[in-house]
Amino acid sequence: MSFGQRLRERRRELGISQGELARALGVSLSAVSNYENGQNAVREDVLLKLFQVLDVDPNYLYQDAISGRSFVCSAEEEALVRKYRKLATPGRQTLHAVADALGAYQTDLEEAAPPQEVRQIPLYRCPAAAGLAAPVFGEDFDYIDVTGSVPRGAELAVRIQGDSMEPWIGDGSVVYVNHDPLQNGDVGIFCVDGAMVCKQYVRDGLGMVYLFSLNRRRAEADILLPPSSGRSLACFGRVILPGRPDIPGQ
């Protein structure tokens, strides 16, 4: 596991957002994101604050889980170290001066960068239920920060009630939703005759709409909507999942 991966894992263990960590370290939000993605190295003065904020020993972030080394270098970094060791003293002193100058320049760039606003999306407190009556979306929501744990493209979030979508979506969990067009097999948030539900969407060639429960032990909560049923159906968005669940019977 890399330094950035360990940093991200520890931050999430503590329930700290990237924005909160950036403020604690006195750096920009993009700097924290770059640390976690391995795009930028952490300056020495920031490292000291990082160890304090995360309450970890320095070796925790740098240890290599495979080799057990206390400090991990990439292949590129190891090549630079080998070149450094071949230099005479004047060359090493010059390299130190260049590194210090570049570090100061990077600090100036970060301090001059305008603060980035954290994007927010609404989290609806009225739950989408498994076949149970629930209010339609209205003003009953809170804004939440879009941090690293929120899928890219999420436009709103909904708290789910019931176990009919397990194991993909647990009772009481929050799902993230966008407005991409639904395809057969996608999971969506629907309003059926005034009741909010979270179901897997399937439409056949005859226009029959099936809203399936992913937990097939709760198949009684499935909803079937023939074209001539006269029932109302509205889709509020597609639930963002790490994969596409299998469609029952296929």
Fold and architecture overview:
- The structure is a single chain.
- This protein has 250 residues and is an alpha+beta fold.
- The chain folds into 2 domains: 3-112, 434 Repressor (Amino-terminal Domain); 120-239, Umud Fragment, subunit A.
- Helices cover 32% and strands 22% of the residues.
- It has helices spanning 3-13, 18-25, 29-37, 44-54, 58-62, 75-86, 89-112; strands spanning 120-129, 141-145, 156-161, 174-178, 187-192, 195-203, 209-212, 223-225, 233-239.
- It has a 9-stranded mixed beta sheet, with no helix packed on it.
- A hairpin with a 5-residue loop joins strand 6 (195-203) and strand 7 (209-212).
- Helix 1 (3-13) crosses helix 3.
**What does the overall shape look like?**
elongated
Strand content: 15-25%
Radius of gyration: 25 Å
**Cα end-to-end separation:** 38 Å
Strand order of the largest sheet: 2-1-3-4-9-5-6-7-8
The overall number of domains is: 2
Q: Give the low-confidence spans.
A: 64-72, 130-136
- In the CATH hierarchy, the architecture of the largest domain is Ribbon
Series of secondary-structure elements, N-terminal to C-terminal: HHHHHHHEEEEEEEEE
Considering the protein shown, what is the CATH homologous superfamily of the largest domain?
A: Umud Fragment, subunit A
Major sheet attributes: 9 strands, mixed
How many individual helices? 7
CATH uppermost class of the largest domain: Mainly Beta
Structural class: alpha+beta
Look up the CATH topology of the largest domain: Umud Fragment, subunit A
